[in-house]
């Protein structure tokens, strides 16, 4: 007897932001899909990936909030990391194969001197085991096939690279950095400067832009909540836009703006992006032009708020 076809799950409209504490062992997309299933949300996205090896803050967006995911892609990030001196690997982290093991004979003062060299604006060569694309194909795919692709150095900013503690050859460090920074490359470069090699053994993201890990919830705790309590954990659609100034629109301005037309008669810094509101109702974001004209850039479906 033929089995009846499985019915497709009917997803619901969910709008908001979940500050998730991603566990080790899950890809960012897998963590997103688990959270999306728990919310039964029709649409979801994330704001920048964390490697499966890494844990920590991963803001997830749902529904109308996905329109603003790009906001955090350009934000600074903070990490606590563990670096093991004396061992280099193919991936510069614990997931790779060991390439070389060397004796470690470095002082704390030598470590500090090496850390200083890696602070500020530096040129960093992206690792082969990364999701960067070359001719439409991720670099890690070439790496797995044994093909090395020349990579141009990229300028990144390391605001902080501090030694928190040392246990033999294992270092606990704290990193504040700009977008595009690979912490495992920092670990590898640190080992190279010290002459003994090194690789990353643990990584935890503690901050993304203005958002900290303290406001997040683990996947296990989120799953343990009742459905209504899960919804209550979502921050509002405009949660990722706290860095933008606010403009209040009157009825006529709101009508124009929500229909994709410029709203007239507003004041503020020309060329800046603003959050637009009708009272407490978030309408979207726009850029202020000459003459007080607010040009809509991203609008939300206001009926879903």
From TrEMBL:
<dbReference type="Pfam" id="PF01509">
    <property type="entry name" value="TruB_N"/>
</dbReference>
<dbReference type="InterPro" id="IPR015240">
    <property type="entry name" value="tRNA_sdUridine_synth_fam1_C"/>
</dbReference>
<dbReference type="InterPro" id="IPR002501">
    <property type="entry name" value="PsdUridine_synth_N"/>
</dbReference>
<dbReference type="InterPro" id="IPR032819">
    <property type="entry name" value="TruB_C"/>
</dbReference>
<feature type="active site" description="Nucleophile">
    <location>
        <position position="51"/>
    </location>
</feature>
<dbReference type="GO" id="GO:1990481">
    <property type="term" value="P:mRNA pseudouridine synthesis"/>
</dbReference>
<dbReference type="InterPro" id="IPR014780">
    <property type="entry name" value="tRNA_psdUridine_synth_TruB"/>
</dbReference>
<dbReference type="GO" id="GO:0160148">
    <property type="term" value="F:tRNA pseudouridine(55) synthase activity"/>
</dbReference>
<dbReference type="InterPro" id="IPR020103">
    <property type="entry name" value="PsdUridine_synth_cat_dom_sf"/>
</dbReference>
<protein>
    <recommendedName>
        <fullName>tRNA pseudouridine synthase B</fullName>
        <ecNumber>5.4.99.25</ecNumber>
    </recommendedName>
</protein>
<dbReference type="InterPro" id="IPR015947">
    <property type="entry name" value="PUA-like_sf"/>
</dbReference>
<keyword id="KW-0819">tRNA processing</keyword>
<dbReference type="GO" id="GO:0031119">
    <property type="term" value="P:tRNA pseudouridine synthesis"/>
</dbReference>
<comment type="function">
    <text>Responsible for synthesis of pseudouridine from uracil-55 in the psi GC loop of transfer RNAs.</text>
</comment>
<comment type="similarity">
    <text>Belongs to the pseudouridine synthase TruB family. Type 1 subfamily.</text>
</comment>
<dbReference type="InterPro" id="IPR036974">
    <property type="entry name" value="PUA_sf"/>
</dbReference>
<keyword id="KW-0413">Isomerase</keyword>
<dbReference type="GO" id="GO:0003723">
    <property type="term" value="F:RNA binding"/>
</dbReference>
<dbReference type="Pfam" id="PF16198">
    <property type="entry name" value="TruB_C_2"/>
</dbReference>
<dbReference type="Pfam" id="PF09157">
    <property type="entry name" value="TruB-C_2"/>
</dbReference>
<feature type="domain" description="Pseudouridine synthase II N-terminal">
    <location>
        <begin position="36"/>
        <end position="183"/>
    </location>
</feature>
<feature type="domain" description="tRNA pseudouridylate synthase B C-terminal">
    <location>
        <begin position="184"/>
        <end position="241"/>
    </location>
</feature>
<feature type="domain" description="tRNA pseudouridine synthase II TruB subfamily 1 C-terminal">
    <location>
        <begin position="247"/>
        <end position="300"/>
    </location>
</feature>
């Amino acid at each position: 007897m033929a089995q009846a076809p499985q019915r497709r799950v009917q997803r619901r409209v969910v709008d908001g932001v979940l500050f998730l504490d991603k566990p080790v062992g899950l890809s960012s997309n897998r963590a997103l899909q688990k959270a999306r299933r728990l919310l039964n949300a029709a649409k979801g996205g994330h704001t920048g990936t964390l490697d499966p090896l890494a844990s920590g803050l991963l803001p997830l967006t749902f529904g109308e909030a996905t329109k603003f995911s790009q906001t955090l892609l350009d934000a600074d990030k903070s990490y606590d990391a563990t670096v093991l001196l004396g061992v280099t690997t193919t991936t510069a982290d614990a997931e790779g194969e060991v390439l070389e093991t060397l004796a470690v004979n470095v002082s704390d003062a030598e470590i500090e001197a090496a850390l200083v060299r890696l602070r500020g604006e530096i040129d960093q060569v992206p690792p082969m085991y990364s999701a960067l694309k070359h001719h439409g194909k991720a670099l890690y795919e070439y790496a797995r096939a044994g093909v090395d692709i020349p990579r141009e150095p990229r300028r990144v900013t390391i605001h902080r690279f501090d030694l928190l503690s040392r246990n033999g050859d294992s270092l606990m460090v704290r990193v504040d950095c700009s977008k595009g920074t690979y912490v495992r490359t920092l670990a590898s470069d640190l080992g190279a400067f010290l002459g003994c090699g090194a690789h990353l053994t643990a990584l935890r993201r503690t901050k993304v832009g203005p958002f900290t890990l303290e406001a997040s919830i683990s996947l296990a705790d989120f799953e343990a909540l009742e459905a209504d309590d899960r919804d209550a954990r979502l921050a509002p659609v405009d949660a990722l836009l706290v860095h933008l100034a606010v403009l209040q629109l009157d009825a006529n301005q709101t009508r124009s703006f929500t229909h994709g037309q410029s709203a007239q008669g507003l004041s503020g810094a020309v060329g800046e992006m603003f959050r637009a509101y009708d009272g407490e109702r978030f309408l979207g974001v726009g850029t202020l032009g000459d003459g007080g004209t607010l040009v809509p850039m991203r609008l939300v479906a206001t009926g879903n708020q």
